[in-house]
Amino acid sequence: MNTAFITGVGHTRFGRLEGEGALDLMADAASKALDDAQLRHGDIDGLLCGYATTLPHLMLSTLFAERFGLRPRYAHGMALGGATGAAMLMLARDLVRVGRCSNVLVVAGENRLTGQTRDSAIQTLAQVGDPDFEVPNGASVPAYYALLASRYMHATGLTQDDLAQFAVLMRANAARHPQAHLQTPITTADVAASKDIATPLRLLDCCPISDGGMALVVSAKPGDKAAVSIIGAGQAHQHQHLSALGDVMATGASASADAAFGEASADRGAIDYLGIYDSFTITLAMLLEEIGFAPRGQSANRVRDGSFASDGVLPLNTHGGLLSFGHCGVAGGLGHTVEAVRQMRGEAGTRQVARLPRLAFVHADGGVLSSHVSLILSVAT
Length: 381
Description:
Low-confidence stretches: none
Helix content: 25-40%
Mean pLDDT: 96
């Protein structure tokens, strides 16, 4: 079967972007991705758009196509929570591999910080809760993840100080990215002193709400830059609501990852860069451990010993992740792949890792660790 290549990446600055709507942010990111791929609008024959809570249009993909001047042969809007971005890339790869499309634009953007009230955001995100057994009790997304955290920490021995290690690492990474939302360095003491959101999660254990846009181009031909291809992909969907999760040790992340590794004919020991979804510090710890990049209860120790640092054996979210680069919905999740591509090309500037990655693993989850999508990226030597 044919190979699919990521030929273009682009994004806006993340943070407070007054006056920029969802379509504006999507168009800005898409323009940068097309420029990076050295393609024109007419070269794009496939379009995948992530949902936007600030623009809940029934036909967002064709709305954006009209706005951006595209006439794709295939257009599709997708919604899978935080896993949407990775799922779009998986679908784009399949569209290219079967010959349906030659160049697929994958794009998302949202002005969640400036274009949505707090009450509206809470009401929208409450949909991840069971409408009969969870939502009536008033839980929010942080509360659902706090319940996960409490159970997982009890089972593994992870502590609040362990979780703080991830917040500090992500902020240190974002401090080297001029377009990150949060760039001021923090310490574990700062995390501990931040206000409680939902015990055991504190403010700095949670990602910020941002405005921003991200886009990638997936193509049948490699283009002129380093050829980064998607060689493995997998999904897993074992539950939707937290109350239906049977085992916090098996949320579906490992099943998704196993499928991707099997398709890529690779193993975890060959990976030299990680892009792991990090909506909360507990999300990052749980995913790293379930997928197998750290023993149970020991992921924070890998932060402490430098394994996940830019100059470590397994650099992690070098752009700062959702926890510090920022989170504006689907575009935030796409950031992990955009950064992986830049690292694999050697284009990350002051963030460039010590050893040029040859094989990267990207993982995203949606809901309350509900839907999982794993991708394995390879760069030609």
